[in-house]
Amino acid sequence: MKAAYFLGKERIETRDAPIPEIGPEDVLVHVAACGVCGTDVHIYHGDKGSAAVAPPVILGHELAGVVERTGSAVTSLRPGDRVTVDPNIYCGKCRYCRMGKKHLCEDLFAVGVNRDGGFAEYCAVPERQCFPLDQDIPLRYGAMTEPLACCLHGIDRAHIAPGGTVLVVGGGAIGLLLLQLARLSGAARVVVSEPVAMRRDAALRLGADGVIDPVREDVPARLTELLGEPGADTVIECAGVPAATEQAFRAAKRGSTLLLFSVPRPGSTYALPLEDVYQKELTIAGSFINPDTHGRAAALINSGVIDLAPVITHAYPVEKLDEAIRMQMSAQSLKVIVEPWHAD
Ligand SMILES: [Zn+2]
Ligand SMILES: [Zn+2]
């Protein structure tokens, strides 16, 4: 099979590799779509992902495809089934796994991070990591399940009350998913702040009540105009640059919750406005991966309530993973997908 191996900082090579062997509890997935994640971009530049990376490894943790073969102990899936894969495999034994916080596992394995993933024609995964997709769901959409599941965990942590107001700082693919989830959570008004015009247009098409260009406009002043109040009840930062964190804190009003959702560069810091945290009684929440939300994300995708068509802007064959990663980093793209095999 064709597989794109990550060999170390900024080195990717497409190789002809053997089709992976499966154990009794595994399934072999014929990968039709695998999203390029911000985490892949970090790993490509030599940083760690949700777990440490030991090259050579096949990256790609946002995969969907068709079951090709099943191990002898597999009971819930059959060849031909369409599936999306939850990449995160927990040890089940550490203190976090045993206190209901499995995603904070001390011994986390992740498909496409520290075991071979979806930037290849085939990927072997345990049956329990697979969630069924309806037959009529494009597998490109299926590849959006993992990012949507991460966004769902973030939205759960943000506790959006029906009737509340939300500011999403950053209108990339993640921001556009969070915008839609904020809407589904009952927010009365959702505003997106984003410097790139194409992304602001996408936000408006996907239901934002207003957009702000943070480079040309004063964010707190525009926000007051758009929401009729000085700040939003919930502010979600998902841009991953220091200016966005600053903006998020400036857009918080009394009693706001700030969800710091983006994956920061290792070592990034921010000088916290402690007086605001105290006087405005701010709640600051982090969000890490997708504990128990993959099934809900698959259900949302199967139901069609999340609009994914405008979010996926580019697709590449697996041999062009370098190019796909560069496009994912560019302001021209929202979500970039790699398609190792065409199912449809
Ligand atoms: Zn991801
Ligand atoms: Zn654990």
List keywords for this structure.
344 residues, Quinone Oxidoreductase, Chain A, domain 1, Rossmann fold, 2 domains, 7-stranded mixed β-sheet, 6-stranded parallel β-sheet, 10 helices, 26% strand, globular, binds zinc ion
What does this structure look like?
The protein is built from ten helices and 18 strands. Helix 3 (145-158) packs across helix 9 (294-303). It is globular, with a radius of gyration of 20 Å. The chain folds into two domains: 2-144 and 311-338, Medium-chain alcohol dehydrogenases, catalytic domain (Quinone Oxidoreductase, Chain A, domain 1, Alpha-Beta Complex); 149-286, 3-Layer(aba) Sandwich (Rossmann fold). The strands form four sheets. Strands 3, 5, 6, 9, 10, 17 and 18 form a seven-stranded mixed beta sheet that branches. Strands 13-12-11-14-15-16 form a six-stranded parallel beta sheet, with helices on both faces. It has a three-stranded antiparallel beta sheet with strand order 2-1-4, with no helix packed on it. The protein has helices spanning 38-44, 139-142, 145-158, 173-184, 197-205, 219-227, 242-250, 274-279, 294-303, 321-329, and strands at residues 2-8, 11-16, 26-35, 57-58, 62-70, 82-85, 88-89, 109-110, 122-126, 130-132, 165-169, 189-193, 210-212, 232-237, 252-260, 283-286, 312-316, 335-338. The mean pLDDT is 96. The longest helix has 14 residues, at 145-158. With 344 residues, the chain is α/β, with parallel strands linked by helices. Residues 37, 39, 61-62, 146-147 line the site of one zinc ion.
